[in-house]
Design goal:
Radius of gyration: 15 Å
Strand content: 15-25%
Number of strands: 6
Number of domains: 1
Shape: globular
Helix content: 25-40%
CATH class: Alpha Beta
CATH architecture: 3-Layer(aba) Sandwich
Number of helices: 5
Order of helices and strands: HEHHEEHEEHE
Distance between the termini: 35 Å
Structural class: alpha/beta
CATH topology: Rossmann fold
C-alpha cells in the first residue's frame, strides 16, 4: 500500500487533516486527525508539510450518528471553511487525512472548499472506512 501511494503522490504536497470538533479536542487534549496527518506525512510524504487549515463554522451532528448518507451530506454541507488564505493553497496538491470515512461527506465537503480556493488536486486518505448497508 505504501509504495502504491508514493507513486500516486509524486510532487509537492500539503497534508491537511479534516476538521475536528473543538469539544472533542478539549476532551482528548489534542487533535487526533492532526496527529494522524503527521503520521501519514512521516510515512508517505516526509517532505510535505501538515497544515491544519480547516475550521467548522457551525455545530453539526456527528455523521456516525446519521445512518442515511444523504443526511450526512446535508449535515456537513456549508459547515466547513478555510482558516487560511486561498492564496496559500491556490494551485497546490492537497492530501486530506481523516480517521474514519462513513459516507465521504466530510472529505467531500473539504474537497469542495479546497477546489473553490483554487487547489489543483485533492486526494483523500482514511485509516478506516465504515459503510452501512440498508437491508429491505
Amino acid at each position: 500500500m505504501e509504495e502504491n501511494y508514493r507513486t500516486r503522490l509524486e510532487g509537492d504536497w500539503i497534508i491537511m487533516p479534516t476538521p475536528t470538533d473543538e469539544k472533542h479536542i478539549l476532551e482528548r487534549g489534542f487533535d487526533h486527525t492532526e496527529y494522524l496527518a503527521e503520521i501519514v506525512g512521516q510515512v508517505l510524504l516526509p517532505d510535505a508539510r501538515v497544515l491544519n487549515g480547516f475550521q467548522r463554522n457551525r455545530k453539526t451532528e456527528a455523521n456516525a450518528n446519521l445512518l442515511d448518507p444523504s443526511m450526512q451530506k446535508g449535515n456537513i454541507r456549508g459547515s466547513i471553511e478555510l482558516r487560511i488564505s486561498d492564496l496559500e493553497l491556490r494551485g497546490k496538491q492537497i492530501l486530506l487525512v481523516d480517521d474514519v470515512v462513513t459516507s465521504g461527506a466530510t472529505m467531500g465537503e473539504c474537497a469542495r472548499v479546497l477546489r473553490r480556493a483554487g487547489v489543483r488536486r485533492v486526494e483523500g486518505f482514511a485509516f478506516c472506512a465504515w459503510w452501512i448497508r440498508k437491508t429491505t
